[in-house]
């Protein structure tokens, strides 16, 4: 898989994640970074890590770790564990133009809310 093709598939993956988050939660979603004056609660979706394994020819299998941060104010912080549990159901399968199945999902509470990580593979 060429570098440009990988980037466009990675963008499709982020779009698919954002689409399903918007459908299920209907709160603001930011790509890469949450602005300082962001409206909370909100999500931030970013690619945390990417691993490439060569296949036959010039193709690669790519695994991408998508990090979804849930930011909440003090009042909504009480519901962070509920959001974390819902994200397992919401992010195990996402689709837009392409379909992606998640695996190796983990979450942890942070001072701002919640950090959820999920790995998706494509090739």
Overall description:
The structure is a single chain. 20% of the residues are buried. The protein has helices at residues 3-25, 80-91; strands spanning 29-31, 42-54, 60-71, 93-95, 99-109, 113-122. It has a 6-stranded mixed β-sheet with strand order 1-2-3-6-5-4. It has 123 residues and is an alpha+beta fold. The longest helix is centred in the N-terminal third of the chain and has 23 residues, at 3-25.
Give short descriptive properties of this protein.
2 helices, 28% helix, 6 strands, alpha+beta
Please give the count of helices. Answer: 2
Q: From N to C, what is the helix and strand string?
A: HEEEHEEE
Helix content: 25-40%
First-last Cα distance = 7 Å
Outline of the structure:
It is built from two helices and six strands, in the order H-E-E-E-H-E-E-E. It is α+β, with helices and mostly antiparallel strands.
């Amino acid at each position: 898989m060429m570098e440009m093709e990988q980037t466009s598939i990675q963008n499709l993956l982020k779009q698919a994640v954002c689409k399903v988050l918007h459908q299920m939660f209907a709160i603001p979603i930011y790509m890469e970074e949450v602005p300082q004056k962001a409206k909370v609660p909100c999500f931030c979706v970013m690619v945390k890590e990417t691993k490439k394994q060569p296949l036959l020819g010039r193709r690669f299998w790519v695994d991408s770790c998508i990090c979804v941060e849930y930011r909440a104010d003090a009042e909504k912080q009480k519901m962070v564990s509920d959001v974390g549990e819902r994200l397992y159901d919401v992010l195990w399968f996402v689709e837009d133009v392409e379909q992606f199945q998640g695996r190796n999902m983990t979450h942890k509470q942070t001072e701002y809310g919640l950090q959820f990580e999920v790995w998706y593979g494509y090739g």
